[in-house]
Amino acid sequence: MAVERTFAMFKPGVLQRRIVGELISRMEKKGFNIVAIKLMRIPMEMAKIHYEEHREKSFFESLTNYIVSGPVIAMVLQRENAIATLRKICGATNPENAEMGTIRGDYAVSTERNIIHASDSPESAKREIGLFFKEEEIFPFEDGNEHWL
Ligand SMILES: Nc1ncnc2c1ncn2[C@@H]1O[C@H](COP(=O)(O)OP(=O)(O)OP(=O)(O)O)[C@@H](O)[C@H]1O
Ligand SMILES: [Mg+2]
User: Helix 122-132 and helix 82-90: axis angle, to 10°?
Assistant: First the structure.
């Protein structure tokens, strides 16, 4: 399987709930390399671009207002089959449907405040990584443990 990059973002509230370490730990244990990471507050214009595909939905305004309401942690994660694997460990969009053991199943209550964003396709991953990071902010590395994973 090919090594891929995906985009992940801890949504507003994750810092306040002090679960950043627990969430990052899940990703590291599952073999993701964190190759870029940034604490930031998303400007409204950027939020609208990020969630462009939902522009016509009834929840668009509420979603974009929420996503700019506090600091987020944006990341580029790398491993084999990264996009599908991260979606799997995040769980279903609606936390009520997310399996226990997934991030949303374990930590989230509402669909809007579902803790984490993860790219849903190679096209989204490329677009979202490009929106949040410059190429020179991405630092791939070899950890030497690949054969143990
Ligand atoms: N019916 C809804 N009501 C309120 N918010 C919603 C609803 N559906 C989706 N959202 C919000 O919009 C985000 C984007 O929806 P999408 O359908 O892309 O789900 P997702 O791909 O699982 O989540 P994300 O894009 O954040 O990784 C969801 O994560 C959620 O925060
Ligand atoms: Mg999505």
Answer: 90
